[in-house]
Design a protein that fits this description.
This protein is an alpha+beta fold and 176 residues long. Helices cover 34% and strands 33% of the residues. It has four helices and eight strands; from the N terminus they run H-H-H-E-E-H-E-E-E-E-E-E. The chain has helices at 2-24, 27-42, 46-51, 72-86; strands at 53-60, 66-68, 96-104, 107-116, 120-121, 127-128, 131-142, 145-156. The strands form two sheets. It has a six-stranded mixed β-sheet. The chain is globular and about 45 Å long. The model is unreliable at 15-22 (pLDDT under 50).
């Protein structure tokens, strides 16, 4: 009788592990966070965007500038200036989640892609051709929900635009 009970318990263990893992990984909450981020970002809403960041938020922009927050008002001012002086009131594209990885139940790494299909026209009239970017968000779960602690923005060459020497070789698990 004990053997049958122990065997039945072992059969149930994988289901309990999957359920426990789902409770730990709040993928729905992370996806909702990115939806709120997109709404604030494409709506050019500096206040709402800053509210989604930690007080010690840091960003490494597409040019490699490492911007360290001085607090919530700094974060809001950062986005306000970006939206008026850089974006000139024209919103950038929404981010589409490519992957979510949980380091713990309160820390998630999100990689999201954005397509600048029309490129960007600079102040001097020169045009940057269409391009993609990858954003890497380090999210922390706080008492008020998910917040971004660190954002890294990387430009990405579209696969169809890769030049000589720019293509990453295909990697396989097959020995040579």
């Amino acid at each position: 009788m004990f053997r049958k009970l122990a065997f039945a318990a072992l059969l149930c263990l994988p289901a309990l592990t999957v359920k426990a893992q789902a409770a730990i990984n709040d993928e729905v909450g992370v996806r909702q966070f990115i939806d709120r981020w997109n709404a604030a970002y494409t709506g050019l809403n500096a206040k709402d965007l800053a509210a989604l960041e930690t007080a010690d938020y840091e960003m490494i922009d597409r040019f490699g500038h490492w911007i360290k927050s001085e607090g919530p008002q700094f974060n809001e001012n950062l986005w306000r200036v970006a939206f008026t002086e850089i974006y000139k009131g024209k919103p950038g594209p929404a981010r589409e989640i490519e992957s979510i990885r949980f380091l713990s139940r309160n820390i998630a790494i999100v990689q999201a892609r954005a397509n600048h299909a029309d490129g960007v026209t600079l102040d001097d009239g020169s045009k940057i051709p269409p391009f993609w970017e990858i954003n890497t968000y380090t999210l922390v779960k706080t008492d008020v929900g998910w917040r971004v602690l660190l954002l890294n923005i990387h430009n990405q060459i579209g696969p169809e635009l890769e030049g000589q020497g720019q293509k990453v070789p295909t990697i396989t698990n097959q020995p040579k």
